[in-house]
Amino acid sequence: MTTTTPKPATPAATSAPAAGEVTFTIDDVEVSVPKGTLVIRAAENLGIQIPRFCDHPLLQPAGACRQCLVEVSTPDREGNLRAMPKPQASCTLEATPGMVVKTQRTSAVADKAQHGVMELLLINHPLDCPTCDKGGECPLQNQAMSNGYATSRFHDVKRTFPKPLAISTEILLDRERCVLCQRCTRFSDEIAGDPFIDLQQRGVRQQIGVFDPAVLGFAGSDRAETYRGVQPDGTPLPVAVGQPEVDPRGPVGMATLDTSGRAFASYFSGNTIQICPVGALTNAAYRFRARPFDLISTPGVAEHDSNGAAIRVDHRRGVVLRRLAGEDAAVNEEWISDKDRFAFTWQGMPDRLTVPLVRDRAEDGTPGELRTASWAEALEVAAEGLAAARAAGGVGVLPGGRLPLEDAYAYAKFARVVLGTNDVDHRARPHSAEEEAFLAHHVAGSRMSVTFADLESAPVTLLVAFEPEDEGGIAFLRLRKGVQKNRNRVFSVAPFASRALDRLDARLLAAAPGTEPEVLDALGTPRADGVLAEAGQALDASAIILVGERLATIPGGLSAALRLAERTGARLAWIPRRAGERAGVEMGTLPGLLPGGRPVTDAQARVDVAAAWDVERLPAEPGRSAGEILAAAAEGELGGLVVGGVDPVDLPDPALARAALERVGFVVSLEVRASAVTALADVVLPVAPPVEKAGTFLNWEGRPRPFPQALTSTAMADHRVLDALADAMGTMLGLRTVAQAHAEIDAIGAWDGARVPAPAVAAAQPPTLGEGQAVLATWHQLLDAGRCQDGEAFLAGTAQRPVARLSPATGAAIGVATGDAVTVRTGAGRIVLPALLTPMPDGVVWVPVHSTGSSVRPTLRVDAGAVVDVAAAALPAADVEAAAPTGRRAHAATTDATTTDGEVL
Amino acid sequence: MATTLSPVLSAHWDADRSWTLETYEANGGYAGLRRALTMPAADVVTAVKDSGLRGRGGAGFPTGLKWSFLPAPDGGPRYLVVNADESEPGTCKDIPLMMANPQVLVEGVAITSYAIGCHHAFIYIRGEVLHVYRRVLRAVDEAYAKGYLGKNIQGSGYDLDVTVHAGAGAYICGEETALLDSLEGRRGQPRLKPPFPAVAGLYARPTVVNNVESIASVPSIIANGVDWFRSMGTEKSTGFGLFSLSGHVTRPGQYEAPLGITLRELLDMAGGVREGHELKFWTPGGSSTPLFTAEHLDVPLDYESVGAAGSMLGTRALQIFDETTCVVRAITRWAEFYAHESCGKCTPCREGTYWLKQVLARIEHGQGTLEDLDTLLDVCDNILGRAFCALGDGATSTITSGIALFRDEFEAHITGGGCPLDPAASALFEYTPRGRADLHALSGVPAGTVGA
């Protein structure tokens, strides 16, 4: 902490600064700061604003823009104050004892230096503020007002560039606006580790750019396609409109593919826009859409993953126009992923449900068409139907994994109190009984046992079935910060080293899907050698083990992880993908768990909750899991289903889910947008997306992430709809408001009784592979075909192209080289993707779970660990070149390079 | 008493095949290395410190002191990097030296490396001078073959490898930290200091970066002794140096003389200013040093005296301009050079040189205003001491000093609508000035194109 004290009368009266503290003077105010503090930071803490561009508190000092010059004197050996001959950049200068700093407030030299640098920055800066996206919130504009001259003496010719340069489909660069502060390149290099843009050329022609041969001047380089702007609906302008296809003046267009065949892109590229101190970096979707002073900003929390990143939602007249990273030092610092930033159109798509829908049934029970209905009617129909279904075998509840804790709590209570069942499970993904035992034993009620700060400080982190970037988002950035800053070590049990693992300098404990328990059990035992021995030695009580939700699909995986944590003393944390998973665990949307982590099987726990809910008793038997609910429904054992935000494609067996929804007697769907469930539901009750309701996400740490309602809306949150539905069924749920939910949750409190014992599931035997067979490895990529990314084509353009990864030996065995097409087949269907030979265990094939052209569950109907057939296939001729590693073609056919057979819901 | 020349580095430039190891050895070469290898390394450092040798690359920092800044050995590598990226307009001492006598540099490298405990030294040569690059490569080869480099040098047990590296055409890489970045394979842009190269230089290891001439002076100090070296020069600027006379001078070339010699003495030896003409202005140390005039003919050319007279000794690149020269034209050419060579890292240098260049070009062609002169001076003031490294400072030196000394001539361009002087008269050869349009036609860049 920085403290300020009035300047003492004599230097002798200064009390000795605390150890590691430095006392010095800024603008006649004496200040004590920790050793190593930069002068600009110390001034900030005093409330003295020194203008700056390149300086950013989370980036390494650069000293490039020279805007923050101050006058400095330091004591010499005899203690006499000596002025430094030149003004110093306060963003690179560490405070030293006795230093005297004069900023522009007290020094004419500093003030003149700052005005001079500002004038120089502006000579080549265009006067396009009225049309620039940054105008109105622009550090250059603001500081030109506060620290610049009103007029310019520059009468000569400004430097210009063809514009804009498309860094990616999402990020556009207007180079003439750039002040070359290098914040974006330093972010890419230091924080994200994706140096997809860098400085090029020199002097006044220095510019930020992608690896574009046309800028860098390689002979024979192709010029890429021109960005032409977009139509109001977001689709690119057609070729016939606007500029010619290839800009004759220069290299403007798409990024070039790198040697791996990927376009230069980054999951974190949007942060460069936000930290750009001028309007040089913009994004395609927001460009020219709004003026910042017309926007209303509401703080929010990102709904796309379990990190709970702070965001800012900027909206105008009820429409969200953009989202920015919020600042939360404890969680996301100032960074968010591109998915958090750009994927918000889904909640305002034309398929939004706004009014309740009811499906009439003919006398014989044949379902008819959905029709709109009043809330009163829809609730009445739903209440009657659910009451009948409750009597006819019971009702299963599938709330989905994206809910704030208030909504999750409402589902948990609704299932038990209104439907009288424990058949509730939010896990709309592959899951297992072992996982539920793990969650009940280890996760529920252990909030904040591992935090983001711990990811940064733990000297060793072991990742198990957790791809840190694709499945972790900004958790990856924290891990990387720890690796960069504290030289932390990361080990990962995974089939191959992804780019994320490379950027974490991670050591790979190569494991085919299904062999994770074996690897974990080997750690720290005498039979371990090589990297296994190294990891075993590194794991101790200071280490962290991070397991992903995928480990649930590996029999014995979570049991082995618990054993490993027990054996080494390392802390074990579970990072699921979805925002609502942790809230579901804590609020009791699991068949064996009641709110607060109370086991259903514990009589005392049931008494606690029954008393709080004012009911006589609660069902005592653990209910069915999501898979079991669907199986039971498909068998006709269940009378009805209440389904929240669940996309059947995400479920372990989408075909079974479809069968269940078709077969079951009565389906109530609570959804934001029309979905595959809507098409089969009897009553559809529209609910609010996160921007239209207040709530609290519980992130993977277990940290509450409250967010207010951003948009005025008549849409109701799930808890309020459930409350009304309960009312219609004659039960008082008491959850009309967020406050009511909070009061109840607080009253129930945490469970201090016995925990569920740890699961002890044995690992499965590895399968034997026949010729042309491989074990399937698969996980979600951060940007894929998920419904929450709908409507954002620019973002979709930055997604990684789906590929099938094989080891070179496996590829050779089936005659496939990198770029060739490979077929992955089961009895249910097949996926065809370009192959990418990757160092990984032989006999394993990896494909993304749900990317365009690679939808594993609906197509193959299996999951990781299953045996699949792999074979060479033919790609359409046009796509072969696009897939080739050295291909220079821009993106014409990237996502269509695949074909998908098999039934897709 | 007139000062006389003191050829040491250039003593045998006129020998037959002066660049060969054979010639070098025949003239007493490698005596210094043999001697040094018998001395404790610390004594070599002390000898160079005591000699008072100061950096010959321009800044004049005491060479021995620089070496002693290296932290105590920690078992890891430490490096010597020789800055042979001589690129400043007018400066031409290292390149002739390496051309005529590369072995003295190699010997200096060996002695210095031995002194600072370095086992891998680098010579970073300006890439454009391919012939010099080849010559130094060959010299290093020869030295390896004769056991002056490589394993167990001259049976001493001391090992040294030398890598000769060619730059890729950037003046900024003469700045020592930019040179290190370039040598590491990055963009050549100056690094933030601290840490200084002595602490974290090449590959983040302790590194000494010295100029060619500084390193080449070391063998003679070790061979002939500190007192011999101190007998030349002044008290604070000891020893000898190469003075490169160019421009309107009868016999241009390298004049190796004790520091403290005056231009008047040097001009006497060089046959004076071009016949029939008189001195108008000159640079004492290359294009980044403030201009001198005939008034300064008797300023002793040592670090202190030149500094006291308002300029810098720099690289002792004495460019002589007689009265036929348009000072605006000369300064504009230099300003164009700096705008072309600015690395772009910091605002003052990147934007400032771009601005200065345009204003000066307008003035030169009679399209300036009197206000432009004040703007020039103020922009220079906003660059000087505000830029990241010294390149920006150097870009302003000739402009501020030129306007101070020749304001009338600048004003004559503005009020007279063009240059009052005939460019052909200042040329040393048959020359017909081209119009700007022709220049553009030659460069292949359409007229009106903006950018350096």
List the keywords.
heterodimer, A: 905 residues, alpha/beta, Ubiquitin-like (UB roll), Alpha-Beta Plaits, Rossmann fold, 5 domains, seven-stranded mixed β-sheet, six-stranded mixed β-sheet, 39 strands, 26% helix, 19% strand, disordered N terminus, disordered C terminus, B: 452 residues, de novo design (two linked rop proteins), 3 domains, five-stranded mixed β-sheet, four-stranded parallel β-sheet
List the helices and strands and how they pair.
The complex is a heterodimer of chains A (905) and B (452).
Chain A lengths: L2 E3 L15 E6 L2 E6 L4 H8 L22 E7 L5 E3 L4 E2 L10 E3 L5 H16 L15 H9 L17 E2 L4 E3 L9 H10 L5 E3 L6 E3 L3 H4 L53 H6 L5 E3 L12 E6 L8 E7 L2 E7 L12 H5 L14 E5 L5 E6 L2 H17 L3 E4 L6 H14 L14 H11 L8 H6 L2 E5 L9 H13 L2 E6 L4 H5 L3 E4 L5 H7 L8 H8 L5 E5 L8 H12 L2 E5 L5 H7 L5 E2 L3 E2 L3 H11 L12 H10 L4 E4 L10 H10 L2 E6 L11 E4 L8 E4 L5 E4 L10 H11 L9 H11 L24 E7 L13 H4 L7 E3 L1 H6 L7 E5 L4 E8 L6 E5 L1 E2 L2 E2 H5 L6 E7 L3 H7 L15 E2 L5
Parallel strand pairs in A: 2-7, 18-26, 19-20, 19-22, 20-21, 22-23, 26-27, 27-28, 31-35, 32-34
Antiparallel strand pairs in A: 1-3, 2-3, 4-5, 4-6, 4-7, 8-9, 9-12, 10-11, 13-14, 14-15, 16-17, 16-28, 24-25, 29-30, 31-38, 32-35, 33-34, 33-38, 34-39, 36-37
Chain B lengths: L20 H6 L4 H8 L2 H11 L11 H6 L10 E6 L9 H7 L1 H15 L3 E6 L4 H16 L15 E6 L9 H8 L13 H4 L6 E5 H13 L1 H5 L9 E8 L5 E6 L4 H7 L9 E5 L8 E2 L9 H6 L8 E6 L4 H15 L5 H18 L5 H14 L6 H27 L6 H4 L9 H8 L9
Parallel strand pairs in B: 1-2, 1-4, 2-3, 5-9
Antiparallel strand pairs in B: 5-6, 7-8, 7-9
Helix pairs in contact in B: 2-6, 2-10, 3-6, 5-6, 5-7, 6-10, 14-15, 14-17, 15-16, 15-17, 16-17
